Amino acid sequence: MIKVYPAVSRYSVDLGWLRSNLSFSFGDYYDPNNSEFGVMRVCNDDYLAPGRGFGAHPHSDMEIVTVVLSGSIRHEDNLDNIEITSFGEVQRITAGSGIIHAEYNASTTEDLNVIQMWFEPRERGLKPSYETSRFDPDQLNDALLPIVSHQALENAALVQQDMTLYLSKLAKGKQLTFKQAEGRKIFLFIIEGEIEVNGLTLEARDTARLEFVSELDITAHHAAFYMLIDLP
Known about the structure:
globular; nine-stranded mixed sheet
């Protein structure tokens, strides 16, 4: 089963300094029929104005993954981590038993665009931790590159859940096949361009949720940049 969510169907927030498009219930937006997909709880497509951001606030028992699409994000937490992350890098927070952090657009002149996602951890009460991982953007070309995984992979953030997050850039006309074990789920997010997935067309900022599908045939109608998450 493949369920497509067009970009225009997302709930939008505009606070001036923050523009956000939400794929799931979050904050003041609550839809009881759209609060989760497997262990996935949040997928926010955020744009932050220069120098703006979120002050110190707590989290617990959640795996938080931030993929930077453009600009730079500054992270600070009560574990004494201070980091600035740009495209080609990923932030991972294991909130575990509790962490306090703040995050801001690190630039005073440029907007910041990130995709921030929250996932349930494999167990509650884990030791809190923070990580910045780095990957080579050239390895995205016509391939599915794991950038977040439950396995210890080179250049991938280590997440405390049985999932893998891939990024890929497909040239026009190129095709990839993705196979996974029975009983798992797939979340797709088209960042740029247009792809066809098992006969369905997805355009920029569309998402799709797939269940009971063990093989995906992905073809780029136009040069495309997209994210694929393999979930339990």
